[in-house]
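Help: read this over?
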Amino acid sequence: MHDRELMIRAAAPLTEIIHIIEPDRLSAPTPCSEYDVRKLINHLLFWGPSLEAAARKETVPPPAGSEKDVDLTEGDWAAALDIHVKRTVAAWSRPAAWEGTTHMGGPMELPASLVGGMVVGELVVHGWDLARAIDRRPAWDDDLVAYLHDELAKNAAQGREMGVYGPEVAVPASASPLDRMLGLIGRDPAWTR
């Protein structure tokens, strides 16, 4: 699988989910315990320009203030998020996006392939979070999920120390690749509202 194909395959379920979230579900809890649906959509919109710019090796800081102080879900948030996802996919679909180093909204340089893997993770994991919040079960292909598991495993301990991931959730050895990946980063694959 070419790196540039990853974004397309990661984003497809998320773009479907975006368009079926009803307004009355915006306050629904998600498996990402600090976010309800509205706050998770706001998170994706807040960091989206930085993640897209990273593919072009540009530094675009997030909006002024913290994401808790900014509400980007006013108006047609679904259209805005759909555009953001499509732009991110297009930017990361260029082979050069995965080469060299880049920035994620700040001055620290990181390997572009690491940042690309993180963006794939954002699309898949938060797509899953939003889907579960509205009682849907999205599916990503096993090759993509295996890639993502390997990428997340490289930094899982550091992610837990930083509070990005929760404690690992034990899943059976026979669990699906998606469930094993979710458990690795502290998501309970059996989560329900």
Strands lie at 101-102, 110-111. The longest strand covers residues 101-102. Residues 112-133 form the longest helix (22 residues).
